[in-house]
Amino acid sequence: MDKTTVLGKNRSGVDISPIDIKQMMSLAKVTPASSPGDEKAIAQMREEYIAEADVIGSVPLPGTLKGMASTAMEKLMGKSPEGFIDKLGCRLAFERTGVRLYDALITKCSTAPMSSNISLDRLNEFRNEEFQHFKLVENAIRSIGADPTAQTPSADVDGVISLGLIQVLTDPRTSVAHCLEAMLTAELADNDGWRMLIMLAEKMGMEDMARDFQQALREEDEHLVSIRQWFKEMVIKDTVGT
Ligand SMILES: [Fe+2]
Ligand SMILES: [Fe+2]
Known about the structure:
Layout: H1 21-30, H2 39-52, H3 71-76, H4 81-111, H5 120-143, H6 153-170, H7 176-203, H8 207-239
The site of one fe (ii) ion has 6 residues, from helix 4 and helix 5.
């Protein structure tokens, strides 16, 4: 297996040129900061922005709330359906991203010069399960009369969180191990996201929905175990060589 980590011409550390360290340090001392003050100024500015800011987005009113009756919506009445819809929308977006992450990982593993225990068949299974989970959440959203095409605030925030993961997976220079580390982050969040959604569904009285979500969680558990194991094996091989 090709190593993930290689020795090379990395010039980011000061030890590359010990003779210049003193000069570099003295330059830092004589060069004034571009603006006066300390970290309190940035905190103050952020506070001002926070005080003025509107919410990051809103949850659209479900069609059923506008007049149509549904058994599901009756159960949600008196609670906070918008909070539940927000989290459903968040899971929907994450599962869609999950499909794209696995697509990128499959391409990486198919082309990277390596031999490992990673099974492309298993990766394809995981990818298809993420897609099934996406469809499951889409149907759940529709069942309560909400719109799965609407981006909820939590979905928006999750999209921003996932940006780094997508970048790692699609960067042609990253290794399979780097991508597995990003996937491990994704699957840990994925796993917790499902647990949260199941808990919410139960508390909202949506037992059937919670049961369907339990099946997704069982599959997510398998994703997590495999990704964690493959990542660990690659790091050990790369570091200790066995
Ligand atoms: Fe997932
Ligand atoms: Fe997953």
